[in-house]
Specification:
alpha/beta; 3 domains; five-stranded parallel β-sheet; five-stranded mixed β-sheet; 31% helix; binds succinic acid; flavoprotein; NadB; oxidoreductase
């Protein structure tokens, strides 16, 4: 059984820090929400590393929004719903497509310099989009530009206090109301931070898998702590694998943006054959889950470990101008994007599910909000449309701040004690445990799943559970515990879903089954597992 708290404490003995809004995480969701909230509130932003350590920093392709004259919210909505494979909440998608442009205006006002073409915002194409609607910055460094601009604002804002290198261990709740969180300072001291609203902006779970585009901070902390606190967790069986991630000896798994295919790149197997014709009429620009699985099938068929991405037929000038970061990165490993085919393979990239929220970003626990990848707003369904993630963070970040403004002050919190029984540190070093967990997930709960593999995975994960009886005290230990929670939830939900849909593919149930499974799976620590119908408006 996953315990309520990861650590022992007595709340009344902990030092207390009071603020208005607690923001946990420093990617686009955390930065944006903090800036908007700071207009009227005192904000405490807590990050376990630094402002530049987030998934956002690595986002290349960009941010999807209805900007062009030939585009419309209806077209963006339609593309999002098709990619989401029948599991999107249409109400949430409507919010996204209508409010996206306002969020983009905010980003520009906050200092983000998007690329321009003839004085207008430049727009590119990505998979499963029917229009060019992706804004980008410095060609392929969109996330880094957003982080630069927003960090600059946050650092100079007197209403925002930033705590770097602080680890949020658990949320403090009573009667389904969130009062704040237990935070460990860099020197190991624990404190109770309390505020009228707590906003999880802690990102995703890429580190569940050995091969991922995510940085090492992506350990699912927000999802795990919200689950322990009794929040509803939804759609966590849907993990998106990005189709084209650099696969080259000695090089890290570096993202090669979908925009490269958007600008004309094609995929070839190791025999040099273009293969997407055999998989989908939209070829290389089919939805991501389809391209990723097609690549895995080609890899298996040709007994290889990668396929090639080929953009050598486009002009070298365009390639260098549009993709300066990717071009330079590949060149560091002797690969020239303008003349060489680039070896790529899929890697874990994004979790569609997370902490379930309403249309104002509030979770099933009052005063606890979730924004960005940690959340399950209903926008992404079973498969996220490319570049909808940054848009989701700003659209729902705006709504969360509006909702926080309507909150009354917190009432006094009754005393809470976590059981004091843990004495010994974990037996095995957690770094070994993390590698083992990543192996379990890759083998049993990645691209192609089955009841046999998922059951085996679940058994292997259960064997790690005694960790929760140990006295955890270091960041790595908390992170591993959080990964173990998320791995268990993902595997449980994937085992339950006996069909294939979007990013979830079951070899033993290869068809989509709308009659039985056009539903969400919701996991709750206290109430167990339930099914929820898809919200259609
Ligand atoms: C990419 O540039 O391909 C990543 C964008 C995204 O994940 O939406």
């Amino acid at each position: 059984m996953i315990p309520r708290f990861l650590t022992d404490f007595s709340l009344e003995r902990l030092p207390r820090v009071k603020t208005d809004v607690i923001v946990i995480g420093s990617g686009i969701a955390g930065l944006f929400t903090s800036i908007r909230a700071s207009e009227t509130q005192k904000v405490l932003m807590i990050t376990k590393k630094s402002l530049s350590d987030s998934n956002t920093q690595f986002a290349q392709g960009g941010i999807a929004a209805v900007i062009a004259d030939d585009d419309s919210p209806a077209a963006h909505r339609q593309d999002t719903l098709i990619a989401g494979a029948g599991l999107c909440s249409t109400a949430a998608v409507d919010v996204l497509v209508h409010e996206g442009p306002k969020g983009v205006d905010d980003l520009i006002r906050m200092g983000t310099n998007f690329d321009l073409e003839n004085g207008e915002l430049a727009l590119t194409q990505e998979g499963a989009h029917s229009r060019r609607r992706i804004l980008h910055a410095h060609g392929d460094a969109t996330g880094a530009e957003i982080v630069r601009a927003l960090s600059d604002q946050v650092l100079h804002n007197k209403n925002i206090e930033i705590w770097n290198d602080h680890f949020v261990i658990d949320l403090i709740t009573y009667d389904d109301v969130c009062y704040g969180a237990i935070v460990q300072k860099p020197d190991g001291q624990k404190i109770f931070v309390t505020g009228k609203a707590t906003v999880l902006c802690s990102g995703g779970v890429g580190q569940l898998y050995r091969y991922t585009t995510n940085p090492d901070v992506a350990t699912g902390d927000g999802i795990a702590m919200a689950y322990r606190a009794g929040a509803d967790i939804r759609d966590v069986e849907f993990i998106q694998f990005h189709p084209t991630v650099l696969y080259y000896p000695g090089a890290p798994r570096f993202l090669i943006s979908e925009a490269v295919r958007g600008e004309g790149a094609i995929l070839r197997n190791i025999n040099g054959e273009r293969f997407m014709e055999r998989y989908h009429p939209q070829l290389e620009l089919a939805p991501r889950d389809i391209v990723a699985r097609a690549i895995v099938s080609e890899i298996e068929r040709t007994k290889s470990t990668f396929v090639y991405l080929d953009i050598t037929h486009e002009s070298a000038e365009m390639v260098k101008h549009r993709f300066p970061t990717i071009y330079q990165f590949c060149l560091n490993y002797g690969l020239d994007l303008t003349t060489d085919w680039i070896p790529v393979a899929p890697a874990a990239h994004y979790m569609m599910g997370g902490v379930k929220t309403d249309l104002n970003g509030e979770t099933s626990i009052r005063r606890l909000f979730a924004c960005g990848e940690v959340s399950a707003t209903g926008v992404h369904g079973a498969n996220r449309l490319a570049s909808n993630s940054l848009s989701e963070a700003i659209v729902f970040g705006r709504r969360i701040v509006n909702q926080i403004l309507s909150l009354t002050p917190l009432e006094a919190l009754p005393e809470i004690k976590a059981e004091l029984h843990r004495q010994d540190p974990p037996i095995q070093p957690v770094i070994e445990k993390r590698l083992k967990l990543q192996k379990i997930m890759l083998r049993n709960a990645a691209f192609k799943r089955s009841a046999i593999g998922l059951s085996k995975g679940l058994e292997d994960l259960k064997r790690q559970m005694p960790l929760f009886n140990a006295l955890l005290s270091r960041r790595e230990e908390y992170e591993f515990a959080n990964l173990l929670v998320c791995a268990t939830l993902t595997t449980q939900a994937a085992l339950l879903r006996e069909e294939s849909r979007g990013a979830h593919y079951r070899e033993d149930f290869p068809e989509r089954d709308d009659l039985r499974w056009r539903k969400h799976i919701v996991l709750n620590r206290e109430k167990g597992i339930s099914e929820e119908s898809v919200e259609n408006v």
